[in-house]
Amino acid sequence: MPLQGPKATSITAPPLKSRIPTRRPRRYISRPAVSEKRLSLMSQDKVRYEMNLHSALAENLLPNPADEGRIRQHAVDIGKSVYRPISTPQQIEDALDVLLNKANQIGDPFEQSFFVMVHLPYLQPFADINKRTSRLAANIPLFRANLCPLTFLDVPEQAYSRATLGVYEMSRVELLRDLYVWAYERSTQEYLAIKQDLAEPDPLRLAWRDFIKQTIRDVITHPELEPLSCIQRAVAERVPVGEQASVQALTVEELRRLHEGVLARYGLRPSEHTAWKAVHGH
């Protein structure tokens, strides 16, 4: 059942076109039984997540700092529109709860993403920054599915404004749907171009990066110890035999490349680095 606005408007997102899958969500009739208390807690968690998302985006941007991450407490007007969202805080919170539960039942990540981008601005659950919150929230299903993120950096502002007005005024999502498809295809092209320019990360370095950082820190903060012996001891204690030689080589390489510009990476102070160089040179 689509969400209902105060003017008896109704939005139901149509299947997305172009390269976006058109699979419709199942009804999940045979869901495992969940207690009412558990359902209530799950709903509260979803609402809190959106509130924290809004708080992060709205920090120092609202006239009233108390509105950051808080359900809207007053009526709002939509620029260039006669649409008026519901204004009672409890109704807004209930509608947001329904919206997030509906979104959670959509299996297709693109449809779930588009659903959020349509309905959050339509509900206007926060005092401001609703569209920005919806665009960021629309990426969450894509991240979960390990898909390319959606960016609106190059989307013409007027085109986006008209698309959202089509939702507010006429309950029509076609223009916003086409804009979503265009923006996503452009995002994937930019992502692929950037990915081609990046070197493939070393999987061993990634797997042991925390160990390497901690070992470098231990070496620098204990200048009285011989660096190579310190590294060998740490590797022997924590690294499997088959990877010890490679991890030790990576750690030694990191130590040799250490300079003032990367000290924060290891949680080191310049004075600690200077004291270590005074003993061992570098």
Can you describe what's shown?
- The protein has 282 residues and is mainly α.
- It folds into two domains: 36-197, Fic-like fold (Orthogonal Bundle), CATH 1.10.3290; 203-280.
- 57% of the residues lie in helices and 0% in strands.
- The chain is built from twelve helices and no strands.
- The chain has helices spanning 36-58, 89-104, 109-123, 130-137, 140-144, 157-170, 174-197, 203-207, 209-221, 227-238, 241-256, 270-280.
- Helix 9 runs antiparallel to helix 10.
- The longest helix is centred in the middle third of the chain and has 24 residues, at 174-197.
- Mean pLDDT is 83; it is low at 1-42.
Short description:
This protein is mainly alpha-helical and 282 residues long. It has helices at 36-58, 89-104, 109-123, 130-137, 140-144, 157-170, 174-197, 203-207, 209-221, 227-238, 241-256, 270-280.
